[in-house]
Amino acid sequence: MTGIISCIIAGAAMSVQGVMNTRLSEKIGLWESNAFVQGTAFAASLIIALIFGRGGAGTLRDTNRLYLLGGLVGVVITVTVMLGMGKTSPAVAVSVILIAQLFTAALIDAFGIMGTEKTPFLWNKYIGLALMTGGVLLFKLKP
């Protein structure tokens, strides 16, 4: 599977999951739904790792401790997506999330954070962010 196809699937899955999680949270509560979502993700990941994994979990002690916080960031992502979609609409929430993702990723690239190769944040990226922001504002306009 190519990187672009993986990204398309990830984007579509994130949008679908965001709506599913938001609807679940309306029924059982925000933190209860987050616990259920994270718990089922853990169980599925554990089973898949046992079947298809490389057996590299033993090298966790040799990993940068910062990278071990990814699961906690996952909790923040799941909860804030549910809150955002619950207070706006899925399209607006995902649009704002995409802008925030792009801006953050551009900063990570520009400063070479967490071992990424430095990529300058040039004028075209500022224009792209401005156009995306303008698109979200247009999206929110009531006819």
UniProtKB/TrEMBL annotation:
Keywords: Membrane, Transmembrane, Transmembrane helix. The chain crosses the membrane at residues 34-54, 66-85, 91-111, 123-141. GO terms for cellular component: plasma membrane. The keyword Transmembrane helix applies. This is DMT family transporter. It comes from Candidatus Ornithomonoglobus intestinigallinarum.
